[in-house]
Amino acid sequence: MKILLVYAHPEPDSFNGALRDITVKTLTELGHEVQVSDLYAMQFDPVSSRRNFETVKNPDFLKLQFEEMHATEHAGFAPDIATEIAKLKWADLMIWQFPLWWFSVPAILKGWVDRVFAMGSVYGYGHMYEDGMLRGKRALLSVTTGAGADAYKPDGSNGDINGVLRPIQRGMLEFVGFDVLKPQIYYSASKVGQEQRRAWVQEWVARLASIEQEEPVGAGRY
By C-alpha distance, which of 210, 217, 198 is closest to 19? Predict the structure, then answer.
């Protein structure tokens, strides 16, 4: 498969960083093609503006969706955005590796979505959800949390983890056509010992070995 790993953590030596490295190593050894968007290392700018484009539809009023459609039609995206859109189109599977911050993705990853999930190129013209432009592709969240598993049960203090992740899995990934695989979740990752982390890595490596055969689980509707 062709696999895009989007990595969003500011510390290369974090557990997220270790997961990034083992993911690339394992998938490459299995014969898959892997590209990585390491957003902090790239110093990816998460702020949408006219810098997204080399073309201009309306110089007097910035409506991002209109400019995105115009850029799609005239090959007018800035090089950094065009490169990331090309990675999306290339990939059969996209994996996001990130820490859960404030019940969502880090701002740099949300900004990547804001800028790269461009209307006309990634969604639009009536193509959403089951008829999304990226249908046939799959996506998987690999997530670390600060709180433990009990906090993310339906009756836990933070609520059901499936509900927490639904805006990401349904509102971002399924919206543009991705089939969503079961998330890989590492609860309270900063507080566990090395033995637990090693066990998690082994489980992840084993999962990656059969990732081609996995069936989507779906994110569930609101």
Answer: 198
